[in-house]
Amino acid sequence: MNVSKYISEKISEVQSGSFTTSVTKIAIISIAAGIAIMIVSFAILEGFRNEIRDKIFSFGAHLQISKYDTNNSFEGAPISTATGINSTEDIPGIAHIQSFARKTAIIKTDEEVLGVVVKGVDKGYDLSAMQQNLDEGKLIGFNDTASSMDVMLSRRIADKLRLKVGDEAIFYFIQNPPRARKLKVSGVFNTGLEEFDEVFVIGDLQLVRELNNWPDTLVGGVEILLKDFEQIDLVADQVFDQMNYDLQLEKITDRHAQLFDWLQLLRKNVVIFLVLIIFVATFNMVSTVFIMIIERINMIGVLKAVGATDAQIRQIFYFRGLSLTLKGMFWGNLIGLGFCVIQYYFEIIPLDPENYYMDTVPISWNFGIIVILNVITLLMTMLAILIPAAMVARIKPVRAIKFD
Q1: Taking the model in full, what pTM does it have?
Q2: pLDDT per residue over 87-121, tens digit each?
Q3: Which among 121, 108, 110 is positioned nearest to 152, based on CA atoms?
Q4: Distance CA 34, CA 328 (A)
Q5: Which of 73, 120, 287, 374 is the most exposed place for a label (fewest CB within 10 A)?
Q6: What distances in angstroms separate CA 36 from CA 10, 161, 195, 367, 374, one per listed residue?
Q7: Which of 331, 336, 343, 326 is nearest to 367 (CA)?
C-alpha cells in the first residue's frame, strides 16, 4: 500500500465548513472554469474560422488559375481548359479541378436596376459549399444541349430587386453589341460576406460561352480544391511548376488577405487569453497547496518525528493536489462539452449576421485540441504543485509539533 496516497485520502476528509474545504472548492472551481472556458473558446473559434473559410471557398477554391493579364477587370481574358494541370492525379494534394467564367451584367426589373457579376459554372463545379448557404429554392440546373436559364441570387440582391424564387428578370450583358437574356431565379443564397453577396450571381458557364462566342475549350479560369487547406503553399508551388507559362496562379489567402489575416489575428488573441487562464488556474492550485501545508504543519512534524522522509510527505500533498486537479478537469470538461453540445444542436445563442457573417454561434468539434488542453493543464498544474511541496524539506519536526 502507498502510505503517502493513503494519508492524502485521509486528510481530504476534513470537516465541512473548515477553511481548507473552502479553499479546495475554490481550487476545483478555478480549474473547472479554466478548462470549460478553454474548450468553449476553441470550439467557437474553430467553428467561426471554418464557417468563414467555407463561405469564402463557396465563391472561390483554394487556388485559381487565370490568364496572365494586367487588366484587373472581373471578366479577364479566356484560357484553354488545357492548363497543364488537367487531372487530380498530376499532384497528390489536389482534390478537384473545376472551370468558371465571369460576365458583368445589369439586372433590370419593373422597379429596380442593379449591376452584378455573373459567375458561370458547369456540372463539374463543386457547389456543396453553396448548398449550405442556400436560403431558399435550389441550385441551378444544367441542360445537356443548351445553356441553362437558371441563376442563383444572394439575399441582398434579391431583396434590392424584390425578386423571389421562380421570378424572371432581364439581364443586360455589357459587351459590344450588348445582349439581353431573361433568366429565372432558381435559388437564393446568403453567405453574410458583403463583398460576395453584393456582387455575384451564379449562372451557367455555357451561357457565358455563348455570350462571348467561345468554343467549349475556353473558360474564364480554373479553380483547384485541395485535400488539405493547410498544404496550400506546398501545392501552389507544385501547380506553378507544372502550369503553362502564360498563366498566373493566385492563392485564396492572397486574394482575400484581409479576411485571412483577421482570422489569424483572432486566433493569436484567443491563445494569449487561454495562456492567462492556465496561469490563473495553476496559481490558484499553488496557493491551495500552500494553505494545506500550513494548516497541516503539526501533522508534518509528527510524520517526520516517526521517520517519514521529505519525499513521502511531499507525495502526500502532491497526491492531494492531483486529486483536486482531476476533479476540476472532470467538471470543466463536463460543463464545456455540455455547453458545446447544447449550442451545436439547439443554437441557443444567436448572432447578428450583419456583423458576424452568421446567424448563430458556430461550434467546431476538434477532440485533438480538447485532449491537448487537458494535458497542458494537468502538466502545468502538477509542475506548479512542486513549488509549495518543496517547502516541506524546510520544516523542522520540533518547531512543527509546537506550531499553533
Answers
A1: 0.79
A2: 677 788 899 999 999 999 999 888 889 999 999 99
A3: 121
A4: 9
A5: 73
A6: 29, 46, 36, 14, 10
A7: 336
